[in-house]
Amino acid sequence: MPMVPKRLILSVSPIFILVTLAIAQPPFRIHSCLNDKGNYTANSTYHANLNTLLTSLFSNEPDINGYGAFQSSSHGRNPDKAYAIGLCRGDVEPDVCRRCLTNSTNLLTKLCPNQKEAIGWYDQCMLRYSNRSIYGIKETDPAFFIWNTQNASSDVDAFQRDVQSLFEDLSSRAVAGGSLRKFAAGSRIAANNFQTIYGIAQCTPDLSDVDCNDCLNTGVNGLTQYCKGSRAATLFMPICRVAYDLQLFYDAAAVSPPPPPTPILSPSPPLLSPLPSTNGTTENGKKSQTYRIVISVVVPILVLTAIMFFVYICLCVRKAKESVRSAEDTDDEKAESLQFQFCAIKAVTNDFSEANKLGQGGFGAVYRGRLLNGGDIAVKRLCKNSGQGDIEFRNEILLVARLQHRNLVSLLGFCLEQSERLLIYEFVPNSSLDHHVFDPIKRASLDWNVRYKIIVGIAQGLLYLHEDSRLKVIHRDLKASNILLDAEMNPKIADFGMAKLFTVDQTQSDTTRIVGTYGYMAPEYVKRGHHSVKSDVFSFGVLILEIVSGQSIKRFSTEEKAESLLSYAWKKWKEGLATNLVDPKMNVGGSKAEIMQCIHIGLLCVQENLHDRPTMRSVALSLSSCSVSLQVPSKPAYFMDSSTNLPKIRRHISRMRMSNRHQNNIVQASENQASLITEVHPR
């Protein structure tokens, strides 16, 4: 099969946030302005033809009268003739289809002003226009991949076989759809883990069967090659689309085949028709005989049905019990594989020697361990003051060990012997972010490309913790010292997922013991003890501004008057001098627009009102696309004028602490406390 030309590959989460744009319409999932196809002059003949065509293309309601609506038309004369194609997904209802295509016509010309050719995709529809004929022409350029970064299964090859098997069926059904609709949707149960895989395949109906089949095969090959093992993936091309997800993302009722007509049960003449009167049989005798025949047939059927239903219920109950026992056995096996012996850990850390000590945190010291095969591990020796039982500790470890993401430090195992509790992590060689970005010598080697990679990686890790993992995790102590860097300077979030391993007197939404680091704590957390995913968003915004400026929130200073990093950044942004915030030792290159976008996102994240802060999904989307329009940030939390320095900010937080003492809230905040303070609970 031919390879997909000019691929643009995006790695994002499967459910995209509709970010508010300056224009009224919601944004496309993907769009392309095809600059290489030429431009037109405003108010030219082609411009007028295009406007007339797009205005009239979807204005006639009778034209959109069924699922998978397809529109193709043209207007004008060559060489200024305009052509357009509109297609809705096969499960979309007519009114939704019409709104989607209308939005597309309004939005695409605004995003691609003066481009003769452009294409835009929503989830529900696609619009394409050009100055050349595009009807019935096989074109696979441009192609866009979008996939979920989380794997669907530990057995990637088996999952890929299930995906390919699903699309073999969908492609054949879509190709056979005819000249009005080439669309198919369906599902398949994965063989290795019994997950349901949902998928769609669609071509523009103007294609020949051969061209449609070739395009779908190219798309499926692209998904299996570039999105291998992902929980969800979509490929957009001008003439076809293929997509799958572990969650149902289409209208199953609209694409399901209609149920077969229920047969009309008419009485069988030999059984229920009145028998001819013979030998003087009375009418009552005929009815009695008829009733006896009916009873002799119906009653056994009802009894047999009841028996079969009872057997079915028994089998379901038995299967449920076996599933529970199987899950318990799996957890036991998992715990056994993660548990290390204390004597072995003691040996690889040289009896927890000071020479192997990597650092000291709020809940214990961290040591480097060297395994017999030459590999390294990091061992956190917890303080002996946890109030949690051994069984609860073990269960929490099993939950946290399931968190797997390239931007999280992996928990490899644990040790639980008598009073000793150890956590074993992967070893990350380049220490923590604060040792690089705040060091006057090392930070000079962090050019913008490296810093941007760190920002994006932290955003992806937080997005996984907040929305895409099996658990919902709120970190609550996100800061530069809790971001570790691997050999390629990829960031890994550390100290997550351990809150329930310790006695911190907290619930899922509020806490009576506030623990954190000055500057990184969100105001609603400091004032009321309320934490949420938006608390982590605040900390992430502080991190962005630290990475851009090369200065710590705790020790920020300028040649101007002393003030906080947040206040300084916002004031310079308002004055149009945001470049003053950029680290003078950083090699910027040609990335000024990217840097300004990151400062903008950072200021949005540190706003006082938590409802004004973006989610991590919208942050990740903004970082991956320069076309997303961002709101204007408001004054950040803890805003101080230039006469207010960091000690005054601390006194400000202390006053808030004193105001809460009538509620028996004890605020314990430290500049250097590197603790495991995270909320974890199953989704």
Automatic annotation (TrEMBL):
SMART domains assigned to the protein according to its UniProt record, in alphabetical order: S_TKc (SM00220)
Q: Where is the composition biased (Pro residues)?
A: 260-273
Q: Where is the signal peptide?
A: 1-24
What CDD domains does the record point to? Gnk2-like, STKc_IRAK
Which terms are listed as keywords in the entry? ATP-binding, Glycoprotein, Kinase, Membrane, Nucleotide-binding, Receptor, Repeat, Serine/threonine-protein kinase, Signal, Transferase, Transmembrane, Transmembrane helix
Q: Chief location of this protein? A: membrane
**Domain Gnk2-homologous residue range list:** 28-134, 140-249
Protein known as: Cysteine-rich receptor-like protein kinase 44 isoform X3
Q: Which organism is it from?
A: Ziziphus jujuba (Chinese jujube)
